[in-house]
Design a protein that fits this description.
Elements lengths: L4 H44 L4 H10 L3 H11 L1 H4 L5 E7 L5 E4 L11 H7 L13 E10 L2 E11 L1 H51 L14 H36 L3 E6 L4 E4 L1 H7 L8 H5 L8 H7 L5 E7 L2 E11 L5 E10 L1 H37 L4 H32 L6 E4 L2 H17 L3 E6 L6 E4 H17 L6 E9 L2 E8 L6 H4 L11 H6 L6 H11 L3 E7 L3 E9 L19
Helix pairs in contact: 1-6, 2-3, 6-7, 11-12, 12-17, 13-14, 14-17
This protein binds adenosine-5'-diphosphate.
Adenosine-5'-diphosphate (ADP) binds next to helix 14 and helix 17.
């Protein structure tokens, strides 16, 4: 009930007023009572039992009619005594205190009080008895043998009680009014304190809920005003900090989300803390309930969480492994919190499949090149040594020189092809000119007719529909098509046919070279564009091939933003399709700069 500061303050006001009023009330009532008593005593002692009157009283007791005289004297002094309905006097016997007579005719006896007892022993009985019925004054009239009579003046406390009662009721009324004022004032005053506190509380609650409303600045300079403004500054700082932290978190999350590196974090217990999409993909993880040791012990036998947390805290350990069709590089390292305690382990997973493949293909490439050169070089060397020995006749000499010539040509072609590939690999600029493709195809068909006729093959070109002019590097594109048509002639037996088609489909120029030759086994088709890949190495070499023709063709077509594909069936024939986009905004615009590199 008294939970709010407001009610506590009102209660405090009430308690203060109550205690003040009660203290004042008690003080007043006590003092009034005391005043009444002392007034009564001093009145009696100074106005009644004066130095004149007491000897008269004593003298009266000595006379014969002592009692009568005493009564008369007192009756005559009743004005001075102040006899009224409250105050009376009585004459008591000086020996036993028994009632003899008094101003109150109705009274026939008096109660023996301490004051009467005092008077009986010869003392003036003027002690105050708060609990007694009367204020009293007992005066002994002394004879030779002690008190003869006792003049007993008594006054009821009715007047005092009435007066005190009135006073109390006035005080109570004042108290009520004061309490009312205290409640109202307390309420209003406490409101001026509690309203800003309530505002502060509301604001703090909002901040706790994550709403960083800054609010108005307080003009007040008191403690609460200062607190409000400090709170406002704190809210501002908090908002800025939270925003900064949130934006850093978002940044970090985005970086993690879009990172091509897989990132996995574990706590010191080995429980998963975080995993990004790349890591899920590389490690093929769907459920997020993996544990460090369980998971990595399947990949590496010598990796354990304890090593990173205790032994190799500041080291990074790199490991590589084939996993889930990827070649992955794992960087293991522990991370620490700001208080320098180890928080767990972070594993960075890099997909190095491509670079690994590249490295393997480079090695393979070097081995291939060495191999391709060594065979003709060995032949040439052997033939030259034989010729130098001079032990061969003229006919053999011609034959040897022919072979040397052929092998040298082959090596020249090989080196030339390698040079072309190297330039293409280094991103050589194409010499583009917008032109029609059909005349080129027609030209090639005518040029190679001779080759085809040698094998009694039919070589034809059909234009299915017209293709708009396209930007191409004439020399390079011509070389590509010559190479493919030559292959078709080479790998098609006598009497076969080689057909060229051109068409314009969906903004693309399509060139198809179809033969009905020996075809390529299915397993070789997917590797046919690789460098040095040949279906039948011996036969290809016999035919003077280098195994680089299709690889070069693919590089050149790709450089034109086009595509090349090959479909084949063994003993049925082969179809090569070149697709070139007609709109080539993606390529550099044709420029006048001549590319001096000649293909072949
Ligand atoms: P090569 O110099 O050996 O001809 P290519 O790269 O041009 O090298 O061709 C690679 C291999 O593809 C050839 O060795 C051959 O085995 C096969 N090939 C290419 N074209 C055809 C075709 N039209 N028919 C059958 N096999 C082909």
């Amino acid at each position: 009930m008294l939970k709010s500061i407001q009610s506590k303050l009102v209660l405090l006001f009430i308690l203060v007023i109550l205690s003040v009023m009660l203290t004042v009330g008690t003080f007043i009532v006590t003092n009034v009572t005391r005043f009444y008593y002392s007034d009564f005593m001093s009145q009696i002692s100074t106005a009644v039992f004066t130095e004149d009157f007491v000897p008269q009283l004593e003298e009266a007791t000595e006379s014969q009619r002592s009692f009568q005289k005493l009564s008369e004297l007192l009756e005559a002094a009743s004005g001075r005594i102040g006899v009224d309905s409250y105050r009376n006097y009585a004459i008591l016997d000086g020996k036993d205190g028994s009632f003899l007579t008094g101003s109150d005719e109705l009274l026939t006896q008096v109660e023996m009080t301490d004051n009467i007892l005092a008077a009986l022993s010869g003392q003036v009985g003027n002690a105050v008895d708060n609990n007694g019925q009367y204020m009293e004054y007992a005066y002994p009239i002394m004879g030779e043998n002690g008190p003869v009579y006792i003049v007993y003046i008594y006054e009821t406390k009715e007047e005092l009680n009435n007066f005190s009662g009135n006073m109390l009721s006035i005080i109570l009324q004042a108290l009520l009014v004061a309490l009312l004022i205290a409640v109202v004032l307390g309420y209003l005053l406490s409101k001026t304190i509690t309203t800003p506190i309530k505002n502060l509380t509301d604001r703090a609650e909002k901040i706790a809920e994550g709403e960083f409303e800054i609010g108005e600045e307080s003009p007040s300079k008191d403690e609460i005003g200062v607190l409000t403004n400090t709170f406002r500054t704190m809210g501002q700082r908090l908002r800025e900090t939270v925003q900064e932290v949130a934006s850093q978190n978002t940044k970090l999350e985005k970086i993690m989300e879009y990172s091509t590196d897989g990132i996995v974090a574990f706590d010191t217990e080995g429980e998963l803390l975080h995993i990004n999409p790349s890591a899920k993909k590389y490690l093929s993880i769907r459920e997020e309930n993996i544990r460090f040791d369980e998971f990595f012990s399947n990949i590496f036998s010598d990796v354990s969480l304890g090593d990173f947390l205790y032994l190799n805290q500041d080291k990074q350990i790199i490991k590589e492994s084939d996993y889930n069709n990827y070649y992955l590089k794992f960087h293991f390292g522990s991370f620490k919190y700001s208080d320098d305690t180890v928080g767990g382990v972070i594993v960075d997973v890099q997909n190095v499949t491509e670079s690994r493949k590249l490295e393997l293909s480079r090695r393979e490439f070097v081995a291939n090149v060495s191999h391709e050169l060594r065979t003709p070089l060995t032949t040439v060397k052997a033939y030259i040594e034989t010729l130098e020995s001079g032990e061969v006749d003229a006919m053999m000499q011609t034959k040897f020189l022919d072979t040397i010539h052929r092998e040298t040509d082959r090596m020249t072609r090989l080196v030339s092809d390698l040079l072309i590939l190297s330039r293409l690999d280094n991103g050589v600029k194409l010499n583009l000119t917008r032109m029609s493709i059909e005349p080129i195809l027609r030209d090639i068909t005518e040029k190679l007719q001779f080759e085809a006729r040698k094998k009694n093959q039919s070589l034809s070109y059909t234009m299915l529909n017209e293709i708009p002019a396209i930007p191409i590097d004439y020399d390079r594109m011509q070389q590509v098509i010559i190479n493919i048509v030559s292959n078709a002639i080479k790998y098609t037996p006598n009497n076969g046919s080689v057909k060229l088609y051109s068409s314009y489909v969906s903004d693309n120029a399509i060139i198809r070279i179809v033969d009905n030759g020996m075809g390529i086994p299915e397993k070789d088709v997917k590797r046919i564009f690789e460098r040095f890949y040949r279906v039948d190495k011996a036969r290809s070499r016999e035919q003077g091939g280098t195994g680089l023709g299709l690889a070069i063709a693919k590089e050149i077509v790709n450089a034109h933003a086009g595509d090349i594909s090959l479909e084949s069936r063994l003993n049925e024939g082969t179809e090569v399709v070149i697709t070139l986009p007609v709109e080539k905004s993606f390529l550099q615009e044709p420029d006048s700069e001549e590319d001096s590199t000649a293909l072949v």
